[in-house]
């Protein structure tokens, strides 16, 4: 629970997918505008190819004017060069927009995970969080990738329609009315596709979560012979994802087919009408060729429109999943008007349990129910759900700034979390200590043997979740990290539960010496730690039942003695 500082993403309260997509677009509007500009130039220049060809035929070939033929050929070459150059720039900025939209979303989820901590995994399954980063963020970015081409498609469609209206009103009206009608027909496919894509997304998230749980508990599964049980569960869920994917594939195939069929029908209609008008003498041969070129070109805007619908559908689903994560509130929030905490050592009091931690003492809290002492540790450090009423010399921690509380009070939980990086970065995330100080803290935690076993020492890479270390090694490294914070008040939850008795004895002696004169609170029933305690607090049902020295409580409180002896037997 040692919180690391990170940049504030500065996002507003985004509660709907539409609001989120607008916010992402607003954040990268400059590159979007540039991409749209190049997209318009790219497609409009292509839309003018048939016009130049028609003029070259009518004026140059049929009209017999060589100069006009050369002129229109040069114009056509210029349009080709302009289209190629603008197309390259459009693609560059489209990829940039895709990456910005995708990675901004992924980064935002990272900030949200850091801010909310355990509140996020209590509300949203881990598989859904992973799927949102790996899949939904990419789908959101895809919307901004296609936006430049879609803008160019709209503008080029208008340009072609106006040219056709100028040459033939019926053909112009067919284009102006026909294209929107064809795009509207896609809604009959898109709506059921969206529902099936959402179902597929749900099933995929469940599958990822099941896989993550299985991998995290692989050692336990092997110990109890449960691999086959989880393998069957994974196979069943995998088949469910496949079945949902098959249902999505049918509608996706229909949408892809519509991208070919509908524009093809549209081309046939326009060419047939144009041919009739040419036979009747209403349009020239060059215009007929141009009309065919226009209809062939209009396949691009139509396909782009259908792609835009598909991308928007996927992005909306992905944004819906992402906003679900963004709606999770952290367990603790900043006070509206933070009050400063008292300077210097001060007593720390928890009204819920009646526990008072006196400054400068080594205090051990014992409970027959470890979850209650762990909950006390959360309250003392202002962690966990709900607002704590813990006070430092009369000032509520809930009324102080979180940064001030985290600086003064550090809580190291029983399940140590290690991350990827060098061991030095793992033990000293803020890079505030030299190697000598790190080694001294490591010695206090009796972690010398851990360091000696690493070929690169402090520069050795820590694997994901510290899986290369045993439970006891991870625990000692986490204790070292907590000691290096130099916190005024250090709260440790079962810091020696995974080490042997000899190692625990060394840690107990060194810990009390290293923290002499500073406030240290340990949640444990270990006799080796209790022997070193200045003060012991015994909890019964989460409330103070007795307190004093370890020896006195052993002689006068039977419940305390039974709790400690049971811990010793274990």
Automatic annotation (TrEMBL):
Region (Disordered): 332-353
Record-annotated ABC transporter domain positions: 328-566
Entry keyword set: ATP-binding, Membrane, Nucleotide-binding, Transmembrane, Transmembrane helix
Residue intervals passing through the bilayer: 31-49, 69-89, 146-165, 171-190, 260-279, 285-302
Any Pfam family the entry gives: ABC_tran
Domain ABC transmembrane type-1: 33-314
Topology with respect to the bilayer: Multi-pass membrane protein
Localization per record: Cell membrane
InterPro entries: ABC1_TM_dom (IPR011527), ABC1_TM_sf (IPR036640), ABC_transporter-like_ATP-bd (IPR003439), P-loop_NTPase (IPR027417), Type_1_exporter (IPR039421)
GO molecular function, one term: ATP binding
Range of residues in the leader sequence: none
PANTHER family named in the record: ATP-BINDING CASSETTE SUB-FAMILY B MEMBER 10, MITOCHONDRIAL, ATP-DEPENDENT PERMEASE MDL1, MITOCHONDRIAL
The name this protein goes by in its record: ABC transporter ATP-binding protein
Biological classification of the source: Bacteria, Bacillati, Actinomycetota, Actinomycetes, Micrococcales
């Amino acid at each position: 629970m040692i919180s690391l500082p990170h940049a504030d993403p500065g996002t507003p309260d985004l509660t709907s997918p539409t609001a989120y997509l607008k916010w992402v677009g607003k954040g990268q509007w400059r590159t979007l505008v540039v991409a749209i500009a190049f997209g318009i130039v790219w497609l409009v220049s292509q839309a003018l190819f048939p016009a130049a060809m028609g003029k070259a035929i009518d004026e140059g070939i049929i009209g017999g004017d060589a100069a006009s033929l050369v002129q229109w050929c040069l114009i056509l070459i210029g349009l080709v060069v302009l289209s190629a150059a603008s197309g390259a720039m459009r693609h560059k900025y489209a990829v940039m927009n895709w990456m910005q939209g995708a990675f901004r979303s992924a980064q935002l989820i990272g900030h949200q995970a850091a801010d909310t901590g355990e509140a996020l995994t209590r509300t949203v399954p881990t598989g859904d969080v992973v799927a949102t980063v790996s899949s939904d963020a990419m789908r959101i970015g895809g919307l901004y990738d296609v936006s430049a081409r879609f803008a160019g498609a709209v503008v080029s469609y208008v340009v072609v329609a106006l040219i056709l209206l100028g040459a033939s009103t019926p053909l112009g009206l067919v284009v102006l009315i026909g294209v929107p009608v064809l795009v509207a027909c896609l809604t009959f496919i898109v709506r059921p596709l969206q529902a099936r894509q959402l179902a597929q997304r749900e099933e995929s998230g469940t599958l990822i979560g099941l896989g993550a749980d299985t991998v995290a508990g692989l050692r336990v599964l092997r110990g109890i012979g449960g691999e086959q049980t989880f393998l069957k569960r994974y196979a069943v869920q995998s088949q469910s994802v496949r079945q949902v994917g098959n249902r999505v594939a049918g509608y996706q195939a229909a949408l892809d087919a519509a991208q070919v069929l509908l524009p093809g029908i549209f081309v046939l209609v326009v060419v047939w009408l144009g041919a009739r008008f040419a036979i009747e003498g209403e349009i020239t041969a060059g215009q007929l060729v141009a009309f065919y070129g226009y209809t062939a070109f209009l396949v691009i805007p139509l396909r782009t429109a259908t792609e835009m619908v598909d991308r928007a559908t996927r992005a909306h689903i992905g944004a819906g999943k992402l906003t679900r994560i963004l709606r999770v509130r952290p367990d603790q929030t900043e006070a509206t008007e933070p009050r400063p905490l008292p300077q210097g050592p001060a007593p720390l009091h928890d009204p819920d349990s009646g526990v008072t931690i006196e400054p400068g003492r080594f205090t051990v809290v014992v409970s027959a129910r470890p979850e209650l002492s762990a909950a006390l540790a959360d309250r003392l450090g202002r962690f966990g759900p709900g607002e704590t009423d813990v006070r430092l010399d009369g000032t509520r921690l809930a009324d102080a700034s979180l940064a001030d509380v985290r600086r003064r009070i550090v809580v190291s939980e029983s399940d140590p979390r290690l991350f990827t990086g060098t061991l030095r970065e793992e033990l000293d995330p803020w890079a505030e200590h030299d190697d000598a100080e790190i080694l001294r803290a490591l010695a206090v935690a009796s972690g010398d043997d851990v360091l000696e076993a690493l070929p690169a020492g402090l520069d050795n890479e820590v694997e994901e979740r510290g899986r290369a270390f045993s439970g006891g090694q991870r625990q000692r490294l986490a204790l070292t990290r907590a000691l290096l914070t130099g916190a005024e008040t250090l709260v440790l939850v079962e810091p020696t539960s995974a080490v042997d008795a000899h190692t625990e004895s060394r840690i107990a002696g060194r810990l009390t010496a290293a923290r002499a004169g500073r406030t240290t609170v340990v949640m444990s029933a270990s006799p080796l730690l209790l022997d070193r305690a200045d003060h012991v607090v015994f909890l019964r049902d989460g409330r103070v039942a007795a307190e004093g020295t370890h020896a006195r409580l052993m002689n006068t409180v039977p419940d305390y003695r039974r709790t400690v002896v049971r811990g010793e037997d274990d």
